[in-house]
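Appendix B. Chain record.
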Amino acid sequence: MGKTVNIAIMQPYFLPYIGYWQLINAVDKFVVYDNIQFTKKSWIRRNRILQNGKDFLFTIPLKSGSDYLDIRERLISDKYFDTDADKFIRKMRDGYRKAPYFNEAMPSIEKCIRCDEKNLFTFIWNSIKTISEYLEIHTEIIISSQVEMDHLLKGQERVLEICRHLSATSYINAIGGLELYDKETFEAKGIELKFIKSETGEYDQFGNEFVPNLSIIDVMMFNSKNDIKKMLGMYDIIRN
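Structure tokens predicted for this chain:
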């Protein structure tokens, strides 16, 4: 019997919630899309942190550009590097300076926020690699455009072709994509279709009512690396 190779494919997100990192940790190869269209209302460049017991939305501002540009073609606004990054750091220090793991987590988080890369994808790619290292996730992370394949393919056909080129035996997708793919089509290609259902649980946030699904920043501030490792394994794999 051949080697099992579990693969996941996702858009890049800036410092996303722990479910994203659970998916990276659950697979052997994690592909990040850089050559798909950027969507303004997505979570690609925004997320939430804790401020005074409530969630606060942060957003990476972009230079103006066509709505049809790929993620890798979008550029971060000069305003971010001139003022916004510093404001975001101050906001985080105000919100988390008394968190138990502030001193341990802050250098990695600040490295992500102060990255001087103006290309949006490369900026986010840096954060994915940096946080994966902090969380001690050893999954191979691959940029989609570097897979040698027909990049004009869309949807399910694109996913199947990436899986084929990376010798996948199973494709694991977020539970929200349950209706996106056809199980029989994957099986015909020798690929098992699976879905991950996150079960993150709660943790103490200064003794206040728990605010769920915040950025990984929040998890890192309030939990030790050992506890986060346990959280990374808190999921169910569902076979449709």
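Further analysis of this model is presented in Appendix C.
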